[in-house]
Amino acid sequence: MTIQPEDAPIPVTCFTGFLVSVSQGKTTTILTLIQQLPKDYRVVLLKNEYGDVEVDSLLASQSNISGVSEILNGCLCCTMVGLVENALLEIKQTMKPDRIIIESSGSAFPATLALQIRQLEPQGFKLDGVITVVDSLNFRGYEDNSPSAKLQAKYTDLILLNKHHLATERQLDDLFDSLNDLNDETPKIKIGPAPSNPPQPELVFGLDTKLFELVDGEKKSWAEAEGSGWHGDEVETKNVWRGGVRSKGKGKGKAHDHQHGMSCDACEDATDVETKEKREVVPVSQEELDKELSKLSFEIYRVKGIVRLSSADTTKPYGTHILNWAFGRYELTPIPSLDDDEDLKGASLRLTVMGERGEVAKRARKLAERLGARVD
Predict the structure, then answer these.
(1) CB-based contact 325:293 (threshold 8 Å)
(2) Where is the stretch described as Disordered (predicted)?
(3) Contact (Cβ atoms closer than 8 angstroms) between residue 166 and residue 136
(4) Helix or strand holding residue 220 (H, E)
């Protein structure tokens, strides 16, 4: 990759995918791409994440990425139009990157985000391409319930297929039939499992997007979808937490607002702040975590967050890990730098549960009860 001249527009690459898997999801795919770039090539990642725990940004910060900026909750493609512009301008002025990568939330409609970036061309930005990561095992299961999943696979410059190594030949044939019905012209490339077979930068960057060449009628449907807010109704989220002061923190357990006259158990339980802050962490055993995660049903798409696991090391009673769970599979990434983090003082769990609207609340509540945690 060549470094951009100072007066050249900054290329912007958008990644999307409907709450795709662990091991080679959007964030992992982006990081494996960045690891292949020259050390002096400056890339900044702008993320949109569900919940109030900056899980993927914490993972990204462990890499050689130049910077991470994150917008929690909401949707980059509609309700946060002004925030996208402000974030991109701030990144341009303060970090002067050679490229910006935007990772949108799982239910985002990327075509409307692409239109926003096109409107910012006079301010020094250029949409390079929209990339969709598709879960080869689960796409056909959730496409029937998710207009977003279909639109992400239709309006894109490139489809990256993860978890293909876990699928049967019949499942892959059915997947390609479904994808080709939606979009038979866009290239479809198998990637992973990480760290093997990563996508190559020369295939992903420099696409010179063709999305804007679609017929006028389809462009009109983009605008209608952008204004309707329908896709935000697809995914419901709940926060599961245990220990510490839930209503304090910066990013890893943010303060939150209520409707007038309302409160929640989290705030009522945090009245004695001094006592809470002094409370010792009660770690979770991996056996306990594994047992409870295995009980989650298909209506739950993702669980991600921070968990303190019991440690066999007698000098340190727990280790802090990032949990990424998707459709029955999960990964735990140790982040020792968070073991003594002030924002997580006394905390043993900070999880965000995502899934089908109408199903998440009761299932998150059961998960919380079994882990001795609370929900808000």
Answers:
(1) yes
(2) 244-263
(3) yes
(4) helix 216-228
